Amino acid sequence: DEYIRLQGVIRPIDISPANTISSQQVADARIAYGQTGALNDANSPGLLSRFFNLPWLPF
């Protein structure tokens, strides 16, 4: 599963009757994109990859 999270500060008066708001009316906006589940696990480096990428190893 993938997700997009939008966080910020809005004024209640800017919320439309359809319970929506324009992105131009969001102050201090923060946008996060991520994924969960098997697809996310497959994109994570394995144990050996993490070991060989340690900063103090000479190779």
Would you write up a description of this structure?
There is one protein chain. By secondary structure, this protein is an alpha+beta fold. The protein has one domain (2-52). It is 19% helix and 29% strand. The chain is built from 2 helices and 2 strands, in the order ββαα. The protein has helices at 38-42, 47-52; strands at residues 2-9, 27-35. Strands 1-2 form a two-stranded antiparallel sheet. The radius of gyration is 20 Å and the shape is elongated. The model has no long low-confidence stretch (mean pLDDT 83). One of its GO terms (molecular function) is cytoskeletal motor activity. Keywords: Bacterial flagellum, Cell outer membrane, Cell projection, Cilium, Flagellum, Membrane, Signal. Its main location: other. It is found in: Bacterial flagellum; Cell outer membrane. InterPro entries: Flag_Lring.
- Termini Cα gap: 36 Å
Return the average pLDDT rounded to an integer. Answer: 83
Radius of gyration: 20 Å
Shape category = elongated
Strand order of the largest sheet: 1-2
Helix content: 10-25%
Low-confidence stretches: none
The helix-and-strand class reads: alpha+beta
Summary, kept brief:
The chain is α+β, with helices and mostly antiparallel strands. Helix content is 19%, strand content 29%.
Properties at a glance:
59 residues, alpha+beta, 2 strands, elongated, Flagellar L-ring protein, cilium
Write the layout of secondary structure elements.
Elements: E1 2-9, E2 27-35, H1 38-42, H2 47-52
Pfam family, one: FlgH
Keywords: Bacterial flagellum, Cell outer membrane, Cell projection, Cilium, Flagellum, Membrane, Signal
Main location: other
